[in-house]
Amino acid sequence: MVMPTFLKDLSNFQIKLIWQNAAVELMEATKVVFIGYSLPYADFEFRQLLTRMVRREAEIDVILFHDGTPEKKLRYEEECRRYRQFFGTRKVTTTHEGVESFVKKLTSAAIS
Questions:
Q1: Which of 66, 58, 55, 59 minimizes the C-alpha distance to 95?
Q2: How many CB atoms are closer than 10 A to CB 10?
Q3: Which residue did the predictor score with more confidence, 88 or 66?
Q4: Does domain 13-111 correspond to CATH entry 3.50.50?
Q5: Which helix or strand (DSSP H or E) is residue 35 part of?
Q6: What's the whole-model pTM score?
Q7: What are residue 38's phi and psi, to 5 degrees?
Q8: Where are the alpha helices (DSSP H) in 1-112?
Q9: Domain limits of the chain?
Q10: Which of 44, 37, 50, 45 is closest to 80 using CA atoms?
Q11: Higher confidence at residue 15 or residue 85?
């Protein structure tokens, strides 16, 4: 796990290799799914990786959670806005139902 920071130490060989593999996977992806990730401004290197490697036509799914409380709803709305602003004209779909609901939908679709 590489935590969100403005400056990551990417000189470690294993981390550099993982980063390069992530770049290849993102470049080939037609759909990118973010689960529980707020896309913080502090995660500068990851944001740069996304900017350079995610295809313009790629679909972006963002799976977050809020329980309806005003504070969590405001946070959810801010995170959604951050994704839409970051990805610009790309198709960004957001949901607030969380991981459990997302996995249930995937598994029921696979069974059907």
A1: 66
A2: 13
A3: 88
A4: yes
A5: strand 31-35
A6: 0.81
A7: -90, 0
A8: 13-28, 44-53, 70-87, 98-111
A9: 13-111
A10: 37
A11: 85
